[in-house]
Design goal:
The chain contains three helices and no strands. With 92 residues, it is mainly α. Helix 1 packs across helix 2.
Length: 92
């Protein structure tokens, strides 16, 4: 009986240490996850800002391209206006 009690006590101590180790490991992993979530949140903000900058840059580029096209090829501007008109859509 005494041997069983000692064996069970040793098993409880071993399991208690293992449990504490797992709790500590879980804590460390949780902190790493939180740090990574913070990095992801920062990257989302950066990505959103870059997307906005690309959109603005694209609008500026295409506006300038339209001006260049209008200067060099006036018939393209006329064609563009024609394709936007209601009468052209009726023909399509």
């Amino acid at each position: 009986m005494r041997g069983e009690i000692e064996a069970l006590t040793a098993e409880i101590e071993r399991l208690s240490k293992e449990n504490q180790y797992l709790k500590d490991e879980n804590y460390v992993i949780q902190k790493q996850v939180e740090a990574e979530q913070g990095k992801v949140a920062e990257m989302v903000v950066v990505n959103t800002e870059l997307t906005k900058q690309v959109a603005v840059g694209s609008r500026i580029f295409f506006k300038a391209l339209g001006r260049i096209a209008a200067q060099r090829c006036p018939y393209l501007v006329t064609l563009k206006r024609l394709t936007k008109s209601a009468s052209w859509r009726k023909l399509m």
